[in-house]
Specification:
Helices cover 23% and strands 24% of the residues. By secondary structure, it is of the alpha/beta class. The strands form 5 sheets. A 7-stranded mixed beta sheet has the order 11-16-27-26-23-18-19. A 6-stranded mixed beta sheet has the order 3-2-1-4-5-6, sandwiched between helices. Helix 5 runs parallel beside helix 7 and helix 12 packs parallel to helix 14. The longest helix has 22 residues. The protein is globular and about 80 Å long.
Length: 613
C-alpha cells in the first residue's frame, strides 16, 4: 500500500498559477463588522513551499481586545502597537495578487476586508483557499478539523496556539502536506473567487440582536423597547445612522416587513413599495420620520428576553414519527458526536467504511448507494484518503480512478458482495475487517437528535469535485420557518445575495469549488423559528441527474453528528437536502432529499418569500 502522506516541506511543488500567501488573524470577536483585528501574519510561499517573504504585527484596535483568555492579547500588550491603517500598505504589498490560504478562510478574509475598508483601501485579494475545506475534501480520518488536530495528524509542532505568526507557520506546513495529498489523489484544490460575480446583498441595515421581547404593533401609547421597526424609502437622516439611533433606543430594526413588524417608517407611503404593501396587508402602522423623531423622545421600557427552559419530554410521550429515528443516546449528552456510533447503538455490518462506486448506470448507482447506507457505510463521492473499498459496477474497470484503487491495494467489491451483506449478513473475505469510528449514516427520511449541549453546527454540503469544471452553478440556501412552514420575512431567506441572518445566527459560506456550508447557532435563533430547511438549486438547465450524488455532513467543533448522501435526483433542478427542527424540546436533524423540477425562485415562493417577477 502506498503512503498518502505528502513529503515534508522543502520537497514539494505547490500547484502553479497561484502566488500562495498563508494568513492568520487574531481578533477581538467573531463579527467582522463589529470587532477588530488584533494581530496579523502573512507568509508568501515559493513554489517549493519555502517562505519567500513574511509579515507579522500586533495591531492596536482602539477598543476592548475581547477574549484575552484565548489570544492573550491584553490592552497592555497592544499598547503602542500600530493601528491597522499604519500597516495596511505593507500588508497590501505582500497580499497583492496572491491566493490567500487560511483556516476557515471566509473568517480571515472577512476581517481583513473590513479593516482595509475602514482604512479607506481595497483588500488586494481575488482568490482564497480554505484549509478547513481542503481537509474535508481529503476526508482525513480525524474526529474534527481544528488546527491543533490537523497539526497533530501531520506531526507539526505548535509552539504557541492562537499566536498569528505561529498559527500561520503551522498552517503553512498543513497546507503543504494537504496539497501534496490532493495531488496524489488527483483532487483539485478548493480555490474560490472572493469577488463573486453574483452581487452582494446590500447590507443597508445590520441587524443587532435585541434584548427585549416584541410587545406588538405600535399604539397611541407610543414606542416600547423591543418593537420591530422597518424603514422604507428615502430618509432625511442616513438610513444606517437612523437604524443605529433606533437600536440604541432598544428597538429591533429589520430590513423587511412581516406580520411581526410593529411599525413601518416611510416618508412617502403613496409610493407603493413592497414594504408598504406588506404593511397595508398586515395592518402595520405607517409613520413618517418626523413622527418617529417625536416618538423617540419617550420610549417605554420593554420586557427583557428570558432564556426559555424547556423540560425534556419523556421518551414515551414523544409523538411517533413515520421516518426511522437514529437515536444518539449518550445519557449525559457530553460525549463528542463522533463517538455516538460506538456509544449509542450497535454498529451496522459495514460501519466505519467508505465505499467508492465506479461505473454503472445512474439507477444502478442509486440502488447500490442505498444498500451501502443500509449496511452503515458511507458512499464516497470522490477518491479521498478515507476510501476503504471500491465497488465496481458495469464499465467500472475502465474508470480513470481504477489505477489509484489498485495502487492503494483497496478491496474491490462487486454488487454480489453488497447484496450478500444486506440479505445474509455476509462480510466478503477480501474486505478488511477494521472499521473507523464514525457518526450515524442516515438514509432518506431518517432522523437523529442533535445533542442539546452543542448549539453551533455546520451543515457542509459537497458534490463530486471533478464536476467543478463541468459548468455547474450550484446555490445552497436556507429558509428559517415558523410553525406555518413559511418564512416570516424575506430576511429569513439566506442565499448568495443575503448570506447572513441576524449577524451570523445563520450564515452561508462558499468554502470551495464543490462545497458550501450553512452555519447555524441554534441558541440564538428567534423563538418563532421552528425549522430550518436547507436546499440546493442548480442554475440553468442542468439537473441533479447530471450532477450526481450530493453529500451532507452536519458537524460541530467536536465532531460529526450525522452524514448522508442524496443521489436519487433525475430531472430536478432544486432539492431540499435537510431540515433542522424543534420537536418535544429537542433539535432534530432529518435527511430529506425532496426534489423539484422548477428553479430557485419557485422554491423560495413555496416557503413564502416575496420574489420579484
Amino acid at each position: 500500500m502506498i503512503d498518502l502522506r505528502a513529503p515534508a516541506s522543502g520537497t514539494v511543488t505547490l500547484p502553479r498559477g497561484h502566488r500562495w500567501v498563508v494568513v492568520d488573524v487574531e481578533t477581538s470577536g467573531v463579527r467582522a463588522n463589529a470587532h477588530r483585528v488584533l494581530s496579523v501574519a502573512a507568509l508568501a510561499l515559493r513554489e517549493d513551499g519555502s517562505v519567500e517573504r513574511e509579515f507579522s504585527s500586533l495591531v492596536d484596535p482602539g477598543c476592548d481586545p475581547g477574549p484575552v483568555h484565548i489570544h492573550n492579547l491584553t490592552r497592555e500588550r497592544l499598547a503602542g502597537a500600530p493601528r491597522f491603517e499604519d500597516i495596511a500598505s505593507e500588508l497590501a504589498d505582500i497580499l497583492a495578487g496572491g491566493t490567500v490560504v487560511a483556516h476557515n478562510a471566509s473568517f480571515d478574509y472577512g476581517f481583513l476586508d473590513a479593516e482595509f475598508r475602514r482604512a479607506g483601501r481595497t483588500l488586494p485579494v481575488q482568490q482564497r483557499l480554505c484549509t478547513l475545506a481542503l481537509s474535508r475534501r481529503l476526508d482525513l480520518d480525524l474526529p474534527n478539523y481544528r488546527l491543533a488536530t490537523l497539526a497533530e495528524h501531520w506531526q507539526i509542532q505548535q509552539l504557541q496556539a492562537h499566536d498569528a505568526y505561529d498559527d500561520a507557520r503551522v498552517l503553512t506546513e498543513i497546507f503543504l502536506r494537504s496539497a501534496g495529498m490532493a495531488q496524489t489523489l488527483q483532487l483539485p484544490l478548493p480555490v474560490v473567487n472572493c469577488r463573486s460575480s453574483k452581487s452582494v446583498y446590500p447590507a443597508s441595515v445590520t441587524r443587532v440582536p435585541c434584548r427585549w421581547k416584541n410587545p406588538g404593533k405600535l399604539t397611541d401609547a407610543g414606542l416600547v423597547q423591543g418593537m420591530k421597526v422597518v424603514i422604507s424609502g428615502s430618509t432625511a437622516t442616513p438610513r444606517t445612522a437612523l437604524a443605529e439611533r433606533l437600536t440604541e433606543a432598544g428597538l429591533d430594526v429589520l430590513n423587511q416587513a412581516s406580520r411581526q413588524t410593529s411599525v413601518l417608517v416611510c416618508n412617502d407611503p403613496v409610493v407603493q413599495t413592497a414594504k408598504v404593501r406588506k404593511a397595508m396587508a398586515e395592518s402595520i402602522p405607517v409613520i413618517s420620520e418626523r413622527h418617529l423623531d417625536d416618538l423617540l423622545t419617550r420610549v417605554a421600557p420593554g420586557e427583557p428576553k428570558v432564556a426559555t427552559v424547556i423540560d425534556v419530554v419523556p421518551q414515551a410521550q414523544i409523538p411517533v414519527e413515520i421516518p426511522q429515528v437514529v437515536t444518539a443516546p449518550a445519557p449525559d449528552d457530553t460525549a463528542p458526536a463522533q463517538g455516538w456510533a460506538l456509544q449509542g447503538h450497535k454498529p451496522k455490518l459495514w460501519s466505519g467504511r467508505k465505499v467508492l462506486l465506479l461505473g454503472g448506470t445512474h439507477l444502478e448507482a442509486v440502488m447500490m448507494r442505498s444498500r451501502i447506507a443500509q449496511l452503515g457505510a458511507r458512499p464516497a463521492l470522490n477518491f479521498t484518503a478515507a476510501v476503504t473499498d471500491a465497488l465496481v459496477l458495469g464499465g467500472g474497470e475502465s474508470d480513470k480512478r481504477m489505477p489509484r484503487v489498485l495502487q492503494r491495494a483497496l478491496p474491490v467489491l462487486t454488487p454480489d458482495d453488497v447484496n450478500a451483506a444486506v440479505e445474509k449478513g455476509v462480510i466478503p473475505p477480501h474486505m478488511r475487517t477494521e472499521a473507523r469510528m464514525t457518526a450515524p449514516v442516515l438514509s432518506l427520511g431518517e432522523v437523529t437528535d442533535l445533542p442539546a449541549k452543542i448549539t453551533s453546527w455546520s451543515v457542509n454540503i459537497a458534490w463530486k469535485a471533478e464536476a467543478v469544471d463541468d459548468e455547474f452553478d450550484i446555490d445552497i440556501v436556507a429558509f428559517l420557518l415558523g410553525s406555518d412552514e413559511k418564512v416570516d420575512t424575506d430576511d429569513d431567506f439566506v442565499f448568495y445575495n443575503n448570506p447572513v441572518f441576524d449577524d451570523g445566527v445563520v450564515e452561508l459560506t462558499i468554502d470551495g469549488s464543490s462545497e458550501q456550508c450553512v452555519r447555524v447557532d441554534l441558541a440564538s435563533l428567534p423563538a418563532e423559528c421552528e425549522r430550518i430547511a436547507i436546499a440546493a438549486a442548480i442554475d440553468g438547465d442542468r439537473t441533479f441527474g447530471d450532477l450526481g450524488a450530493v453529500s451532507v455532513s452536519v458537524d460541530s467543533d467536536d465532531g460529526t453528528a450525522a452524514t448522508f448522501v442524496l443521489d436519487a435526483g433525475t430531472t430536478e433542478r432544486t432539492m431540499v437536502l435537510t431540515e433542522i427542527y424543534r420537536r418535544a424540546g429537542k433539535w432534530r436533524l432529518r435527511a430529506v432529499g425532496q426534489g423539484y423540477d422548477d428553479g430557485l425562485a419557485a422554491l423560495a415562493v413555496r416557503y413564502g418569500v416575496d420574489v420579484d417577477a
